[in-house]
Amino acid sequence: MALGHDCGRALLRLLSRGHAVVAELQRCAESLPAGLRDGDVRLLPVLPDFAVFRKEGAIDRVADSAEKIELDEESRELHAACAERIFRILAAIKKYAADVGRFLEDLDAGAFVGHSVESLLRDVHGSQLLPEAVALLGTMLLVLDERIGGACRERALVLFYRCTVGTSSEPEDFAEVCRLFKSTGRPNGELAVRKLGYPESYFARFPLHQEALRLIIGKLQTGDVYEQGRHYPLPEHRSQALAAQAGLLYVVLFFEPRSLEADFVAMREIVDRHFGDSWVVAYALGYTADLLSWWAPYPAARQALQNAITAGTVRQLQEQHLERLAQTRQRLAELLVEGTLTEEFVAGKSSQLLSLLRQANTGIRWLLLQPSTSDPKLQAVCNISSRMKEQLLGTLVDTALLEDKVKGILGPLVANRDASWQQLKDEAAQSMDDLAVFFSGQHALRRNVRNEELEEFFRSLQQRIEELSCGSEEELLALGRKVAQVDKALDEVAHFHEISQQPQILHFLSDARQRLQRMLRTANLNAEVLQTIETVADLSYAWRALGSYKEAMGNLLASSPDSVKGLRALFLKLASILEVPLRRIRQAGNAAHASLVSGYYSASLTEFMRSVLQDIPRLVFRLLGQLSELSAPGLGSRVSFAELQTYAQRTEKPRQERAQITQRIALLMRGIRETDVAVLGVIRVEPREVLLDGLRRELATRIEQLLARLQFPSTSGRQDLELPLQQLAEQSGLLRSSFEHVQDYLGVSAQQLWRREYGRVVRFLMHMELQALLLKRPNPSAAPQHDPTQPIRFPDAGGGSFISRALQKLLELTDPKTTAGGLHQDWRSVSSGQTTLDSLVLESLMEALHPPGVAAISRLLSLRAAGRVRKAVQGCKALMARQGLPQLVAQAREAALARKTEAVRAAANALASEVGPLAHALAGLGQLVLLRRRLAALLRLRCRLGAGLIHESLAVLDGSALAEAEADEEAAEADGQLPSLWDFVGDGRSSPEELQLRFRRKLARTGELSGLAEPCRQLLQSVPEGSAPLGIDALLALALVQHIATAPSVASPSRKAKRSTAWGKTVAPAPSGSLRSGSLRQEAHAGLAAGLAALLQQLPRKVLQGTFELCGCFIQGLCEGQAWSEGALLLQILGNSLELLGFPREHLADFVPQGLLDLWPPE
């Protein structure tokens, strides 16, 4: 059957699509959300299985409460896309099964003229394609049930139905997909004790033509469909030669379970031929099955296995393979010595090399697969110790290295065989011509040498050599005999007296004979040798089995840095997994399927390679940890010679240890740098990139561990914040300095890598904290900074992250109920006067967390502040909605405008339970804003000192953007014919307005990191003109009135001499160590002032005008009633609010007479 025939093309198209479905199935299984795969207990009420379809109306009652509706929305956000993807894959498997069944029916009905199942199986290609198509369906079903369990499929299908029912996306074949792929009852544990009927009942959902199945099984049972016998000539290698079709046979038999159950003769023949010495079979792309477990429920299959596989035979097989493995390893070590594998050696010893590779690979296959059995008796016999694992891995690496070198030598030789053979023939003929000329007597230097017989003899040999040819099979067979005759003639003539006395002639003859032998070896080279190497070197069966050898690979890398080259050869050997699916896809000519399949397996193989080589960065950082512990005492700027000698002797041992650690790191890096580029499938892997990526991952892990260890005591003292920060700064400083010490050996910029990864970790944790703050379940994979290969834990062992813990500690130290300050001075305790938070503590915070960490705390503060603003606005709306309250507020407004202070006080007291909490909420909001101001100043200072040009550039750019935004409405319309800056930037799909918006958002985020943001003037929540609560200005004024009326005295209780104030009162001086009275008066209510400013910034400007106008009238009334202290306090709060909003204090004159402002000047 030609592959170009309709029948062949149909099979190839089926196989191409099937392999693409398997690749997509595995990709989907690897990205399953944990809640869908394992069944999140919290979301299970809204993720039901098929039981919901059995009760009428149950599907509509899945989300029938407010709590379930919220859970359902979260579940849809997390799982809806994956559920749709699972349905598409299941529908694709259903279609493939239907197409395979239809193809068999058409083949039996004679739809393909000249072809039937029997004729197809008699054909070389057909006997491979037809069993592969059927087995691929079984592979899909087995892989699906293993990777995406029945419960997971049911939950996904129910969710997909709930998301699409009643929409245009609702599929027509949903019910059929549910019937075919409902839960199969596959156990999670031991398969030997699974329920009866699995998996044959599962396979029976996809019925196929029974006669065709029996013919396929018969062909696989008795034939050699892949003609592997020519690559494995020894009888003890028969099971390896038939391994590929044995995997097909294992899968196809589940479609015809009667053979497994009752056909004792056929099963005995199958086991003796295919599974006599190998009971763990690889059936598809690294998936293996233990026949002792899978065939245990079937009498015929079980009896055949029990007769062939016994503890005694298994012990004998293992001893044989281990003995051969030791011999093979010794031989491999000899061949891998530098300089042994030359072109002449490989070309002349190709058969011996093939025999060695064949022996090594068969032993490796048996020792990798068979000990993975689940049978307890055989496990005791086949127990592989860690020492044996290391030896087996060493043999596997050496074998891969030898294969790589032999193919590297033989490949060019085979490709250039004809040209090389012709060149050797010409050189041999030229040698004969030179000898004939020499004995002709016409040579310029030796005219007295003349021998016509020898001249004629060498002329005849020249002619015979020129007549040699290897173009056809007959000529190639005769070539050996002719070359032997010429070689014998040259050997005989060398014994002539006249020739044997001339070393120059003997050297000519020796060279000619060597060229003849090389001609013969070159002629024997063909592509069959390379094909045999590719066949015996196949390692696709170990795709998953090698996962248990990662630890051994890490030990190998640690003990021998040069083993990186061997592991590279091993990964190239593993790339054979791509050949199985891609061979059929290429024959079908489907580029889309080839890209999908090669992309998946190449990425998986590359990731496996990176995970193995990740042990090098881990080892490097372990060594860096040891390096950071080696500290030498400092040396003064001026020392005597004797002190220098003493210092050198005292620090000699640490210096030697430091040198040894540095040398070991350098050797590890050399092994990576000297490794050649590897092409794994369609991905080109650069060793330096692998190293950098590994260092990046490990550095991110170390940074995460450092930040997760930042814990604070439950007490709320200043030292409880400062000491952990100092410890963290010291630890991170040691890690950074040791990393910088070896950066030249690593070939990286330690500072750049540190800052990049530190920023990535902090941004990821900030994203997760934001999700938690918004009461959403954090989904790490949705974070832009998420790296699936190196996930960052959230929450960590301390709960949450270092950002929330540090923020909570800052809030405890600046609680407005117990502290004062934050506006212009440090925070101090009101009761004791001791400093709770000052510049020294904040500098420790910067040294420990660096600018990204401090900016993250500031960002979280802004988010919390936004939440408090929203609650304050909503609270005011709720208050004004109460019955009778709007009238009471309106009366208070009229009283305030009329300067009736007693009436205003009475209204404030009447509303104390409502406006009192509002004042406390404003103080809490102000606490967050003041903390952000101090952190912004800290970031601004650090940016000025560390990156002054960048800071100034950002400041200018920020100012220009602000001026441009303010001038947008006044700007004249631009000439559309003139070029614009926005024509040269952007993606070409966004409008200039969208580009400007994105630019300004990015500039705002950058400004936060450099401290350019002004927290009190930021818009946290936009409240449009019409949506602001009516009467909120009066509520705010009443809250201030209530606060100043109930605020405790901030003066010190000390009984020292008192001094007079500007308004005729006396205030006791502050005791030593406590707040000054002036600063108390200014700072005691800074939180309330900052909260008022932050809230007014979000509201329409008329609210600010109304609030200040009511407060101004109230202050005037207080002054008329001689209530100076209350008036001064309220005036100070209003002045601080205006200052924080960026207005000069003189604006208070719009609301308060200038005389009062002169009476109470600012501190």
From TrEMBL:
Recorded coiled-coil stretches: none
Entry-linked InterPro entries: WASH_strumpellin (IPR019393)
Q: Name one GO biological process term.
A: endosome organization
Family, as annotated: Belongs to the strumpellin family.
**Entry protein name:** Strumpellin
Q: Which domain of life is it from?
A: Eukaryota
Q: Which GO terms describe its cellular component?
A: endosome; WASH complex
Q: Which organism is it from?
A: Effrenium voratum
Give the span(s) annotated as Disordered: 1056-1077
